[in-house]
């Protein structure tokens, strides 16, 4: 009788352990798959606008998955708990950075054409009088090319690259103004 009772307790404990183990496994699997699906939705934009933060989230998801693959379902579930929040924060950071860059592009695209026109006009006048300072022509050409490249990047949807190139063009034009005898315009931040 005692043997049957002990075997019954062992069988019950094994069944309970298996049920708990299966529940932990299912919970961890669902949480990781949910995080992967949520990350897939924001990944392209996040990689473009906040690549470092995107890599951190991707690494956290992969770490939880690796833990799961090793069979440590409790640790995998614990590791997966903050993933939904991290993916949500990543989406918010992406939207914020995109808005920031869009505002910067709007400012740059409204000021650079006028600045470029002003600098070109002064360079043309100095060229006619043969008094164009050394290096000014190359700097102006570099600024024009940077602006052309920035516009092309913007058109192709590469906003971070467009802003970087437009900022370089603006900086070159601002630096060129005193060389050409133009009273410098204070650059906006």
Query: On the 0-100 scale, what is the average pLDDT?
Result: 84
The counted number of beta strands is 0
Residue windows where pLDDT falls under 50 for at least 5 positions: 1-20
**Taking Cα atoms only, what radius of gyration do you get, to the nearest Å?**
30 Å
**Percentage of residues in DSSP E strands:** under 5%
What's the helix-strand series?
HHHHHH
Question: What is the element layout, followed by pairings?
Answer:
Elements: H1 2-49, H2 51-69, H3 73-80, H4 83-128, H5 136-155, H6 159-180
Helix pairs in contact: 1-2, 1-3, 1-4, 2-3, 2-4, 4-5, 4-6, 5-6
Characterise this structure.
The chain is mainly alpha-helical. It folds into two domains: about 1-80; about 95-180, no CATH class. It contains six helices and no strands. It has helices at about 1-50, 50-70, 75-80, 85-130, 135-155, 160-180. The longest helix is centred in the first third of the chain and has 48 residues, at about 1-50. It is rod-shaped. Mean pLDDT is about 85; it is low at about 1-20.
Explain briefly what this protein structure is:
The protein has 189 residues and is mainly α.
Keywords:
189 residues, mainly alpha, 2 domains, rod-shaped, disordered N terminus
């Amino acid at each position: 009788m005692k043997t049957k009772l002990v075997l019954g307790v062992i069988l019950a404990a094994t069944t309970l352990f298996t049920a708990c183990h299966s529940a932990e496994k299912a919970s961890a699997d669902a949480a990781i798959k949910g995080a992967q699906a949520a990350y897939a939705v924001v990944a392209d934009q996040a990689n473009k606008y906040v690549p470092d933060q995107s890599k951190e989230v991707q690494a956290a998801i992969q770490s939880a998955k690796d833990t799961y693959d090793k069979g440590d379902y409790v640790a995998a579930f614990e590791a997966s708990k903050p993933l939904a929040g991290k993916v949500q924060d990543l989406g918010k950071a992406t939207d914020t950075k995109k808005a920031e860059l869009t505002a910067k592009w709007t400012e740059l695209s409204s000021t650079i054409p006028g600045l470029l026109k002003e600098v070109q006009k002064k360079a043309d006048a100095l060229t006619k009088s043969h008094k164009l300072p050394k290096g000014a022509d190359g700097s102006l050409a570099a600024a024009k090319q940077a602006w052309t490249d920035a516009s092309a990047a913007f058109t192709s949807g590469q906003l971070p690259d467009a802003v970087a190139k437009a900022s370089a063009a603006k900086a070159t034009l601002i630096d060129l103004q005193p060389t050409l005898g133009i009273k410098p315009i204070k650059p906006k931040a």
